[in-house]
C-alpha cells in the first residue's frame, strides 16, 4: 500500500512538472512570436515603399506569414527581405497578392533603390529596438549600399554601437559616420 501511494505521488509530481514546463515553453514561444510580430509590423511600417496597412503579419514558432496585397512583385520581394532580416525570424511564408506586375523595362536601378530602402528600414528598426541607442535621434541614408548615419548621440559608446549595428546589416558595403555628440557628451 505504501509503495502504491508513493508511486501515485511521484506520478502526480512528474505530471505537474511536465505541465508546468510545457506551459512555460508555450508562454515563451507566444511572447517571442508576439515580439517578432511587432518588429515585423514596425519594419514594414517604416519602409516608405510599402503600404503597410495592406500587409498583415502572423507569426507562429518564428515563421512569419504575410497576407494582404501589394502593388508590384518587387514590393512582395521587398516585404520578404525586410521581415527575413529580423532577429528571431526562422522563415517567411509570403502569401501577398500582387495587384500590378512589374514592367519589363524596370532595371537594376529600381532594384538598387529598393535595396537601399530595405537597408535604411532595417538599420532604423534595429536602432529603435536597441535600448542603448537614441534611435529617434539618428538619421539613416543608404545609396548603393553605402550607409550614412547622421544626428546626435550622447557619447562615443553609443556612437560606436550605432555604427556597428549599421555595419552588421546585410547588403551594407560601407558606413559613413556623420554622428555628433550632444553638448553633455562633448563634440565629435
Describe the structure.
The chain is of the alpha/beta class. Helix content is 48%, strand content 22%. Helix 2 (73-84) runs parallel beside helix 3 (108-129). It is globular and about 50 Å long.
Give me a quick take on this structure.
The protein has 188 residues and is an alpha/beta fold. It is built from 4 helices and 7 strands; from the N terminus they run H-E-E-H-E-E-H-E-E-H-E. Helices cover 48% and strands 22% of the residues.
Write the layout of secondary structure elements.
Blueprint: H1 2-46, E1 55-60, E2 63-70, H2 73-84, E3 91-94, E4 97-98, H3 108-129, E5 138-143, E6 146-153, H4 156-167, E7 174-181
Parallel strand pairs: 2-3, 2-4, 6-7
Antiparallel strand pairs: 1-2, 5-6
Structural class: alpha/beta
- Rg to the nearest angstrom? 23 Å
Number of helices: 4
Q: How much of the sequence is in beta strands?
A: 15-25%
Overall morphology: globular
Low-confidence stretches: 16-24
Q: Biggest sheet, open or closed, and with what strands and sense?
A: 4 strands, mixed
Helicity, in percent?
40-55%
Distance between the termini: 79 Å
Output the helix-strand order.
HEEHEEHEEHE
Average pLDDT, all residues: 81
According to DSSP, the number of beta strands is 7
